[in-house]
Write a structure and sequence with these properties.
The protein is of the alpha+beta class. The chain folds into three domains: 86 residues, Alpha-Beta Plaits, CATH 3.30.70; 83 residues, Tyrosine recombinase, N-terminal domain (DNA polymerase, domain 1), CATH 1.10.150; 119 residues, Orthogonal Bundle (hpI Integrase, Chain A), CATH 1.10.443.10. The chain contains 18 helices and eight strands.
């Protein structure tokens, strides 16, 4: 099992935890998607802000994937705590005269544990109960993983206090702590609230337990979109036929990354130029059209790659392609194409919808192609389209002659 070294890191004026390890697609994906880590090109490492919440999250998402080496981080925290003690007592009161005496006092200070990481026996049955209900209700593997991770962090934080005895008032205090002390984003806090709400209302059968618990208002984030010129550069940067076909299909049909890797050979209707998406988000089936250009690309791909079940298979025959590998492909292609905008495979889906709106396609049809339940979700693409914006004349232009 790979080792991940946790070290103190000063990055852009902020105390951080630096994560150093031999390159691993599995660990990279876990840190980026589940721990909120970011890559520092300067320090050549992943990093998160230094706090107990992030440390807990790293421990959770890497459990079973890597061994954590934390000596340097713990030594740093020991030094930091000792320094704080000296600052509050004062050097004169401590009677310090030499550097050796300072070091002697610092080495006698005990470091406060960053996190216990152990769920107290009082809450030992919580996670199994939660998982059983999630599985029986047919929740997706991604949702189960998210809810289990959020609940684990909560259980580690509350330590020996039985969560079954928590009141709504106490939970409100905890969520306030998450916002103010842990600086969680609105999206992260929503995930945690959802996990705890499911546990208390579905597992413990306490109806309307969260009725008086407010949720933080989410900011409206516009979808990240590539221009058509950037799409051309992106596709030209990919030489591998298999990789290019996957990227093209994601853009041509507005597919989610999970939908791309789950496509089976039987789902491609070559005669009708249709693609069946089975059990997409929300376990819904839908049909999307395959353009003539996409059909030609698929024919070229299948002439080279003879797969047995899935349209795109991994290293082993009959196994689906890895999401992490596909995300790595587009990141590499973006870098080669000189595209600095953040975003992964889902950005192609956003681009698909936006470019259709710019062509004048009815939003209702786009909603069906994307598989959205609510048209409000589709309408957000109107905020990033260039359609009609270029025809708007700024009032500044009306008065330019008088300036």
């Amino acid at each position: 099992m790979k080792k991940v070294h946790l070290k103190p890191l000063q990055h852009r004026g902020q105390e951080c935890i630096g994560l150093y390890f031999d390159n691993s697609a599995v660990i990279n994906g876990a840190l980026r998607q589940k721990a909120g880590a970011r890559w520092s090109q300067t320090n050549k490492c992943w990093y998160v802000p230094l706090n107990e919440e992030n440390h807990n999250r790293i421990y959770t998402v890497l459990q079973g994937k890597a061994v954590l080496e934390e000596k340097e981080l713990l030594d740093y925290l020991t030094e930091k705590k000792a320094g704080a003690v000296l600052a509050t007592t004062g050097a004169a009161d401590a009677g310090l005269k030499t550097v050796e005496e300072v070091k002697s006092i610092r080495t006698t200070q005990k470091a406060e544990p960053v996190a216990d990481h152990v769920i107290h026996p009082a809450n030992a049955g919580v996670l199994p109960e939660l998982k059983q209900q999630l599985v029986l209700r047919g929740y997706s593997a991604s949702t189960i993983r998210t809810y289990m991770n959020e609940m684990r962090v909560f259980l580690v934080t509350v330590k020996e206090h039985p969560v079954k005895e928590f009141t709504p008032e106490r939970l409100r205090d905890y969520f306030q702590y998450c916002l103010e002390a842990l600086k969680l984003t609105e999206n992260t806090l929503h995930s945690r609230i959802n996990a705890l709400k499911f546990y208390y209302e579905r597992v413990l059968k306490r109806e309307k337990f969260f009725f008086d618990i407010p949720r933080p208002k989410k900011g409206m984030q516009l979808p990240r979109v590539l221009s058509k010129e950037e799409m051309v550069r992106l596709l030209r940067a990919i030489e591998n036929v298999k990789h290019k076909t996957m990227i093209m299909l994601g853009y041509a049909c507005g597919l989610r990354v999970s939908e791309i890797i789950h496509i089976e050979l039987r789902d491609v209707d070559k005669d009708r130029h249709l693609l069946m998406i089975r059990r997409g988000k929300g376990k819904k089936d839908r049909v999307v059209s395959l353009s003539p250009v996409m059909m030609v690309m698929l024919q070229e791909y299948q002439a080279i790659y003879a797969t047995s079940r899935y349209l795109f298979e991994g290293q082993e025959s009959g196994e689906m392609y890895s999401i992490r590998s596909l995300q790595a492909i587009i990141q590499k292609a973006k870098e080669k194409a000189g595209i600095n905008r953040e975003g992964g495979m889902h950005m192609l889906r956003h681009s698909f919808a936006t470019h259709l709106i710019e062509k004048g396609t009815d939003v209702v049809f786009i909603q069906r192609l994307l598989g959205h339940n609510d048209i409000k979700t589709t309408l957000r693409y109107l905020h990033v389209t260039n359609k009609n914006l270029l025809n708007i004349i700024s009032p500044l232009d009306d008065i330019k002659d008088f300036l």
